[in-house]
Structures are given as C-alpha cells and as structure tokens.
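Shift notes (night). Ran KaiC domain-containing protein while the centrifuge was going.
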Amino acid sequence: MRIMAYQPVRRVKSGIPGFDELIEGGFPEGTTVLLTGGTGTGKTTFAAQFIYKGAEEYGEPGVFVTLEERARDLRREMASFGWDFEKYEKEGKIAIVDGVSSVVGLPSEEKFVLEDRFNVDNFLRYIYRVVKAINAKRLVIDSIPSIALRLEEERKIREVLLKLNTILLEMGVTTILTTEAPDPQHGKLSRYGIEEFIARGVIVLDLQEKNIELKRYVLIRKMRETRHSMKKYPFEIGPNGIVVYPSGEIY
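Came back to this:
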C-alpha cells in the first residue's frame, strides 16, 4: 500500500501586520477570499494593502480591478499611506483596471480600462488577459455589488459569480472579492447570499460602538485548509495602513 506524503499548504502573505498569525501564516495559495463589511469598515484599504505589499515586500505581481472609483482616485487615496502604486505599475508588478471612467462617461488615460457596455464573458476574459500579462499572483475585484449593478438583470449575479469562481480557480491566483454585509450581526454576510458560498474564505470587517467610540474589528468566518479562531480581533487604519492586534489589545 502506497502512503501519500503530506504536502503542506503554501501560504500567501497578506501584507497586513498581525493578520497572518490568525490564519497559520497567510492565505492558502490560489484561494478565493470574500472580504465583507459595511460602509467605512476598510474593505478597499485591506484589499489595496494586499496588492501593494505583495509587490513591495514579496515580489508578487497583483491586479486591482476597481469598479467603485477611478484608478487615479484610488492611487491618490492610497498615497496617504505612503503607497506609491504608480511606481510598481511602471515596473509591471501592479496593474489597476479602471472599471469606472467609461461607465460614467469620462475619458481615461489608463492602460487597462473596462468597456462601458458590460458583458460578463468579456469582463472575465479581460481580467484573465491582464492577470496573464503581468503574471499576477494576486487579484482584487472591488466590488461584487458593482458588478451586479452593471448587469441588465441583477438576478444573473448568481450565474456571474459561479463563472467568476471557475475562472479564478483556473488562473490559480490568490483573490480577494469585496462585497457589502447588510447585517453581519444577524448572519447576513453578503447582499446576494451566494458570495460566501463560492468563496473558500470569508473575512468580516465590522464597526462596533464601545465607550461612545466606534471600534474596528475583524472576524475570520471561514478559511479552508486553515485552523483559525472565531474571535473578533481589533484593528486600526493608521498612517501606514491596516494593523491587526491578535492579542486583543491596541497599543
């Protein structure tokens, strides 16, 4: 009888201080993670930090598909953390796909731009080409509700997400998809109720009132191939981006 040798799970570092120790050293390579939370919880910052630090610290190219704000606005906002996205774009380590300008009727000087007329198959093929163009190891799509709004029939989002999941698995990239959590306190983790089922990991970002102040918390709801706590951990968005406090204390 032949005994198969155990193959350890290869991990992809998040680039977020304090977070990786909650998930055995990083995301399982090639996994799809859903990042969900309400408005102002830090989803875009978390996702952008994952892409930027991948290029800066780990030499892993990444693609950021922005469907909620123009690429130029994203760069400006992230520069407040000292992140020079344009530097790594010029080096071919980061690609930002502008999915907003054409929709609102504004001209775009970006290298990667989605067309105004949204077609799911074309969208998926285009993302696939951009990923292959820079040999990306990381991918962010921000956000799923913005994809749904571009569909002629919003109910088709289930079909789109299933197709998207298949393409992502074929590409083998480690992916973060962002979505909105209507009511995470009562188990409503996503707007369409399917996002958390196609993803292999689910991370919830939350704002809670404590001592008449709003505090930020992160909860790892699901992460396959990973042992993780089901506790909420505090985090802050500071001058250098997001920092998670595994000890539960903010210093």
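Helices lie at 43-58, 71-79, 85-90, 120-133, 144-149, 157-171, 195-198. The domain at 32-201 is CATH 3.40.50.300 (Rossmann fold).
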